[in-house]
Amino acid sequence: MWILHFLPESLILFVTTALLLAGIVTTTISFLPVLAQYRTPTQVLGIALLVVGVYLRGGLSIEMEWRERVAEMEQKVAEAQAQSQKVNETVKTRVVTKTQVIRTRGENIVKYVDREVIKYDTKFAPGGQCELPREFVKAINDAAEAPK
Predict the structure, then answer these.
(1) How confident is the model at residue 111 (pLDDT cuts 50, 70, 90)?
(2) Domain count, the chain
(3) Which domain holds residue 47?
(4) C-alpha distances in Å from residue 101, one per residue of 90, 95, 118
(5) Euclidean distance between CA atoms 130 and 118, whole angstroms
(6) Element holding 104 (H helix, E strand)
(7) How far apart are CA 48 and CA 25, in angstroms?
(8) What does the alpha-carbon distance between residue 48 and residue 127 come to, in Å, rounded to a whole number?
(9) pLDDT exceeds cutoff 70 at 30
(10) Rounded distance, CA 60 to CA 120, Å?
(11) How far apart are CA 24 and CA 27, in angstroms?
(12) Distance, CA of 147 to CA of 22 (rounded, Å)
């Protein structure tokens, strides 16, 4: 019922109620002996008004039901967005923390390697064998591992 989107709800409710009441009154009046010669047209008009009133009232009730469902879904979407914001903040905090841990760990390993290389740098003879100490190899391997 596309027309229900353009008219205010109170106007539609008033019109449908008026049509139903007019249909009931017209159908009831058609049985009066005063209108005996107009009985058939009055009954047809009364039944037509009843049918149109019931049809519009049903359309209105379905429209209101759908509007309630849409409102519920909009509320659920708003709640989901709020919850998503909370989760996003948590994830962002975790990422920043992990990034800081990785940087700190990397800086510590670089400092350690620099400190250890200086110890062994003086032992290197020109043209001689270059032995890497175990600590240096362990530091390089530790740097390649994923943070715990």
Answers:
(1) confident
(2) 1
(3) 2-124+131-144
(4) 16, 10, 26
(5) 14
(6) helix 39-121
(7) 12
(8) 112
(9) yes
(10) 88
(11) 5
(12) 80
**DSSP letter at 2?**
G
Contact call for residues 117 and 136 (beta carbons, < 8 A)? yes
State the virtual CA torsion across 121, 124, 126, 131 in degrees, nearest 10: -120
4 contacts 60 by C-beta, under 8 angstroms: yes
Residue range 124-143: average pLDDT?
67
HEC states along 30-86? CCCHHHHHHHHHHHHHHHHHHHHHHHHHHHHHHHHHHHHHHHHHHHHHHHHHHHHHH
| C-alpha to C-alpha distance for 19 and 93, rounded to whole angstroms | 62
Q: Which two tokens stand for residue 17?
A: 């109620």
The torsion of the CA quartet 24, 28, 30, 35, rounded to 10 degrees, works out to -130
DSSP letter for each residue of 89-101: HHHHHHHHHHHHH
